[in-house]
Fold each of these.
Amino acid sequence: PTVFLNGEFLPHDQARVSVMDRGFLFGDGVYEVIPAYGGHLFRLQPHLQRLDNSLQAVRIPNPYTEPQWQGILEELVGENAGTDQSVYLQVTRGVMERRDHAFPADLKPTVFAMSNPIPEPDPALAEHGITAISLDDIRWQSCHIKAITLLPNVLLRQQAVEAGAAEAILLRDGEATEGAASNLFIVRDGLLITPPKGPLLLPGITRDLVIELAARHGIPYREGAISEAELRGADEVWLTSSTKEIMPVTTLDGVPVGDGRPGPLYRQMHGIYREYKQAVREG
Ligand code: PLP
């Protein structure tokens, strides 16, 4: 498959990055993951806006304008427009002559992007849901930045997988914030609740879309903190992400959520989401 690296499209096995790249040495960079359905990049503008926010937050200049980004990503997707894909892009601060934590202002960012096929979500997921465990959030205080420095997320997800779960739901100071690679919603008495944006969670594009779809379809929702007790007492728990879409959590820490099956509000939102996605796919 073809990848994009620093202005060039080339076969992935010919793409080379310096060992002195700050992404390699320090994890000094940011990234995005954007699905494409039927060749159409899904929610492209909000993804590019979040990329720009991440870059600004870590003081890496944005190497491209939005139309330039769009051109690059569409070219990568265009190769396999017939299959659903996930585009990964990352921008690191660039290459230095010698290793030094502090960075000069004039580095040229390293830009990498690739596109890979993704399967449709497994229908068993909508039918049975997933298992999650809760874990203490061991990450930093700037989780709103989509940084490539993912070691805590990697360790948390691995711990979940080794416990037989699909995802970890993270707790900090008595509140549930998000998953290791997903945002969190609960349903209580028909009300959809998700934590407000802030430095302790990633502002998910899927999260925003779910809220937008709830508003459009008259589903009551609120952005508010979710305490650990509220998480454990919820009628429904969902996790959202661009590639996994909406996942109903039916077991949390070995205990059934609600009646242990995907709930009625999940089934409604899942249908609404699928329709929205299909409309995008058909252009
Ligand atoms: N939270 C974290 C920590 C993530 O890594 C992700 C994405 O993988 C999300 C939330 C979901 O974000 P999005 O819906 O934009 O994919």
Note: The two ends are 25 Å apart (CA to CA).
Amino acid sequence: MKLFLSAISLSLLCVSCANTAHVNDNIAAQETTNTLTTVMPANLPKNIIMVIGDGMGPAYTTAYRYFSDNPKTTVVEETVFDRHLKGLSSTYPAPVSGVVTDSAASATALSTGVKSYNGAIGVDVNKKEIQTVLEWAKLQGKKTGVVVTSQINHATPASYLAHNESRRNYNEIADSYIDNGIKADLYLGGGWKYFIREDRNLVDEFKQSGFHYVDNYQDLKSFPKDKPVLGLFADVGLPWALDDTNKHRLSTMTKAGIHHLIDLQETDDLADNGFFMLIEGSQVDWAAHGNDISDAMAEMDDLAKTIEYLEHFVEHHPDTLVVVTADHSTGGFTIAANGKYEWNAETLRTMKHSVNYIAKQLTTNEINAKITTELFNFELSEEELSLLNDSKNNATIEKTANMYQSKTTPASELALIKSVKKVMDMRSNSGWTTGGHTAIDVPVFSFGQHSELFKGLQDNTDIAKKIFMLLGKDNSKIN
Ligand code: MG
Ligand code: ZN
């Protein structure tokens, strides 16, 4: 406790020294330490749910407000995010990686309270394994679960479940989910490619360890009450929300997952112990890397519905804490671009297909008013039609800017992906500054028991420290 308290006061003092008179230092230090030095509260929350919107910087939660606005009213309606805003979090990684974090370093900070290098999974800068909040929760007799829309061995969930020097070691990370002891009672997400391999079938190994396995959303309705669950629903990440058979798959999985963790506690007579759960809207980041506003908003919508469900859960289980934040912001997304004072969500709200799906269809079909109206769900202008046609016909082989795009995608499809996004950017007037991450602070939302602890400006490592404390870990033993 002492350690992290002094580190926090120190960083705060540095900020105030640079900007204000010395007299403010004490006030500022006091204000921050108020949230951070709180002694362990008497009534620890029974359940803790950590929610991460990967890449969800403040521009995304703001854009989502305009996106979900009822255009028939003069006010812009409040969102589930707005209701629970508590503060901001800084996200910078260990100095060796500069100030711009990746998902691995940031999730490691959020899961362990320790800053590390970009790429690190649950290890510090010396590659030493650090205990995560999920591991600690498990040791306290809590049930644990992970629900994500990426593959379950992707950087964010892996940083709660594994320890590896590199996020890229996907097979090793998947193997460790068995080899280093099974740490969760519930895993829902994607990842057949890594869990059912030629050299090893981890799904069979999970089954042999007593797990119930499901591979389609229908089976989320019927888990056996006494078995832990592994649910994999895609080869890698789940399909884009807009293309998925269930556009709100994260909220559906979350509902099923929470009910199951409660069933498991009851069967094991551990009903008083509660659970720890990590939920990730993984693909806000993937859309953002591609500077793809319509998919980003659809992923945000799935995440928002998930948090609305959690609100409802906390109403009925007030001994639960929910913390929602992002690991970093992605894409340098701007709500209004090119000096034009305008941002329109209208066409984004009615999208029925992902940008990638639309581009694929346009690659193999003639581009005309009929097909584009079907695919975009609005009428394209002559100008937009010729933009699409030109890009298709003049496509040259180019290296894709989207790291999630297959290298075998034909040039015409790549060119169309780009121009479909351009149509959506022009319609909405969205701006982008990068295909990567940015170092801007991210919003922190929380509700439920002791949610007030997350007020103000904090570092991502503080979030882990507060969660450790609320899981009853002695402060002097916090990393
Ligand atoms: Mg992630
Ligand atoms: Zn990213």
Note: The pocket of magnesium ion (ligand 1) is lined by residues 54, 103, 150, 154-156, 280, 282, 285 (CB under 6 Å).
Amino acid sequence: PTLEAAELERTFIAIKPDGVQRGLISEIINRFERKGYKLVAIKLVIPTKEFAEKHYDDLRGRPFFNGLCDFLSSGPVVAMVWEGQGVIKYGRKLIGATSPHNSEPGTIRGDLAISVGRNIIHGSDGPETAKAEISLWFKPDDLINYTANAEKWLY
Ligand code: RTP
């Protein structure tokens, strides 16, 4: 079957330094993978402070901006691109509300985090930011086109 345009939707997801330090990489990847989304790019990177400021450019001027950028550049981050129908919006649903105080149990932040400044994961909040963030973190060649076909490897 031919892929519909909607199925090619992609979002940028990052496991922040606290998620990496706490050993939650596989737990977080697992949730996206089991849902049925497809991983099309992944790398471990320590962003510079300047890079973190670019990533959070829209938050410049907020009181927590400097601390947030220090935090994002404090250690390894798992940067990923996930693909699938509705992945931008539903990815945010899997992640849960920005503040773990408000995120429902069953969501990543609801189950695994306590404070807003240490909320372990980032996800693009819309199609425009997804596009911008993917191209900030990845080169076009880093995104892998493939068909995920489980049966082929089982029999
Ligand atoms: P993200 O971009 O990381 O997925 O988070 P978000 O859209 O849910 O939230 P946003 O408002 O874009 O804020 C980005 C990150 O800034 C930190 N933050 N700290 N009051 C605070 O100390 C505060 N508010 C926000 C959070 O880590 C949030 O994820």
Note: The chain has one domain: 5-154.
Amino acid sequence: QALVNEFARLGEPMPQIKARIAFNENPHGLSPKAKDAILKAVESGNRYAMFEGQELKKLIADKEGVKPENIMLSAGSSELLTAMAVYFTGSAAKGGGGTVLTSQFTYDDLLGCAKKFGAKIDAVPLTKEYRFDLAAMKGKVGPDTKLVYICNPNNPTGTIVPAAELVAFCKEVSAKVPVFIDEAYIDFLEPKDRPALPKLVAEGYNLFLTRTFSKIHGFAGLRLGYAIGPEKFLESLQDYSRGEWNPSVTTLKAGIASYQDEEWQNFCRTENTKASNLLYKGLKDKGYDYVPSYANFVLFPIRMKTKQFEKEMFSNGILTSTREYNNQPFCRVSIGTVDEMGLFMDVFKKIV
Ligand code: PLP
């Protein structure tokens, strides 16, 4: 957005965007079954959703081994992240403020909101493999800790913590403080590689997960997400967000269709791997390192200032994103189609 504003301010002609690979969107679009469901749902757009949410929650609950009461739907997971921040750090009745324990270089929606409510953020450095340092985090849990926030796979690094390590961490730490795992990108892992965290929720641990349809399901514009957590907690969370009532009938019907379309999810996962491999090869050939990713974006160090890199890419029709960590500039490029990654590499080679 800043780039678009900058071009408008300077009165420069807006470049034609050939590859939009900045926001970790799904470049393949919706499942054909979801599209069909949307067309059929047009007639019910005048109504609030009533039974559709229950139907979707039942599907998710059956697959994850929890009860429908352990699930709360939302219009994208962002609103759940901010509702969690308000719930744990914003309420004067519960003491407010406190500390959110997390890692450096992670997704900051929840953290930014918690800061606005006076919370301190204790951000532990990443390991040298760009992973959350769970051992170091464990040692930092204290009386002031209101919440632990972990993003797995992590945005912007694309790394994961080994499943068994994460499960052990959640069991131990959630006995002391609430633990929240943001699993926005979990669908990019093969089902057998996903940590069995919903099972811990079913067993009564003080653990919360969020997921989104924005990524593998391609619903970034339709807006659908959900939390998995203790039933009593999710009831209270409704006071901080109209979550459950927010997704439209159209979106829910499409979500029900997409959730069951495993063929489409497998297709998107496979294409994501193909396009990532192409990018890895291109970067390696050019002598650039990268952080191997378990999501639909890849982080790699660049040898140019972030703003300049973004602007030069944008001028050549590539919309991508950059970050800094420990004074090192990085590009975090979303994985587009194979063709889009080819375009990205062509422009990259031209500008560096
Ligand atoms: N969590 C992470 C780690 C994300 O990267 C994003 C979006 O990119 C979100 C949550 C929120 O996504 P949405 O509100 O579309 O579900």
Note: The domain at 32-260 is CATH 3.40.640.10 (Aspartate Aminotransferase; domain 2).
